[in-house]
Amino acid sequence: MPPFEIIQALRFAKFLAIALYGGGILAVFAAESVPRRRSILAWIVGPSFLATWTLGFFLAFMTETRLLSAFVIYTLAASFLALQAALYYGSAEGRSRRGAATLAAIALLASYAFMVYRHQL
Q1: How far apart are CA 11 and CA 28, in angstroms?
Q2: 74: domain range?
Q3: Domain count, the chain
Q4: Rounded to an integer, what distance in angstroms lies between the CA atom of residue 26 and that of residue 40?
Q5: Which DSSP helix (H) or strand (E) runs through 35?
């Protein structure tokens, strides 16, 4: 088992990546123009999604957590759904904000809940 400080540093880095991911998705729905939405998707949402899951898998490896446990699969599905909702709305003009934003918000909240209550799943 690695030192406690390394695991805490990984958890903090993952927390920052998750916060950036959620904030990026909110920014996609707040942006008015399609070029701005696309740049937010490309420069904030995509890299933070990658960082979140890379850090999460590395943290799972370091803490010997099974990658096929229920909370990992549920969280991956929910966060991927939020990403798809943001990509759907952000990549073209004239798409409904309400439906995509609602789906993204529910999926993000579900993924946060799966991570927080992982021991009850």
Answers
A1: 26
A2: 4-120
A3: 1
A4: 10
A5: helix 34-40
